[in-house]
Every structure is written in C-alpha cells, then in structure tokens.
ECF-type sigma factor
Amino acid sequence: MADLTALLQAARDGDATAAEAVWPLIYPELRRIARARLRGPGAPSLATEELLHEGFLRLAQSPAAPLVDRRHFYALAAKAMRHIVIDHLRRRHAQARGGDWQALSWDTALVDAATPEADADRLLALDTALDALAALEPQLAHLVELRFYGGYTEVETAEALGLAERTVRRHWAKARAFLLVQLDGHAD
C-alpha cells in the first residue's frame, strides 16, 4: 500500500498520470465511506456518487499537504464528506425553515429521530457539538468523524488512528458522553 500513498501524493502534486492510476484503487473505499454516511437517520438527499465525487474534488482542490499513508487519506476523505453533508443540510435547513433552528435534546443515541427535518436539526446540532469537542480534544473529534461520518468500525478506527481497540472504545464512550451533554444543553 506504500505505492498507493506515493500515487496519492503524486496526484495531489499535479501528476495527471498518477491521478488516473489512483482513482480505481481508491474508489471502492471512498464509495463505502459515502454509503455509510448516507445510510440511516439524518441521511441527506445526496446520491452516494455525488457525495463521493464532491468529497474527492474537495480533497484534490485542498492545499497539498504530505500524506502519511492511505489511512490518512481516507480519514481526510471522511472529514471532507462530513463537511459536504453538513453544508448540504445547512442549505436545506435554511431554505425549509428560514435558518431559525434550535438544538434538540437527545437521550441515549446520537441520531434517533422520527422525521427528516428533526434529523437535519440533530445533525446540525451534532456538527456544532463536534466543533466544541474538537476545540477541547481534537483526537476525540477525529475519532467521531471516522466512526460516525466515515462509517468505520472500532477495528478500522483503531487501525486508522494507531490506537488499541480498547482505547478506541474508551475514547468513543468519552466522546459520546461529551456530545450528549452538549446536545442536551447542559454544557456551558
């Protein structure tokens, strides 16, 4: 997979041949990440391919930073897709509700809603809470992005972050607790 990392870096540096060669190698994993984000409650009205391609374009247009490895690339892709989904929900919410929304209370699940509008409200509230978490604990926010937005399992998250699975479970519990407190409105 070192070859993939080299191809990704060359593609980001403007090598058209590398970009052409890397696409078939990364497409299946990017598609899995996009599908995971578009499944379940709060799924925006985006097609999988639309999210995948928009995410790839954002990555390609972002300032070229050195890629550590393929996992780093996929983590960046999950983050880009998170921002696309949130931007889409914000636009849709602004149109449907005039931009005046309130954070909703959640009890035990991060996303558990009855209507698409409530889902959008909760995902927007989650994004705000995730930004607050990132300000305090960037690694926990990154873990949430991988698990929630990237659809990564505990094992995949542990591998991507270079942590033990037990540590991932502990950090996931800590991040969920923080987010639930933020979403319930009990935090300052």
In short: The radius of gyration is 17 Å. The helical segments are 2-12, 16-38, 48-61, 70-97, 116-136, 138-149, 154-161, 165-184. DSSP finds eight helices and no strands in the chain. The chain has a mean pLDDT of 77.
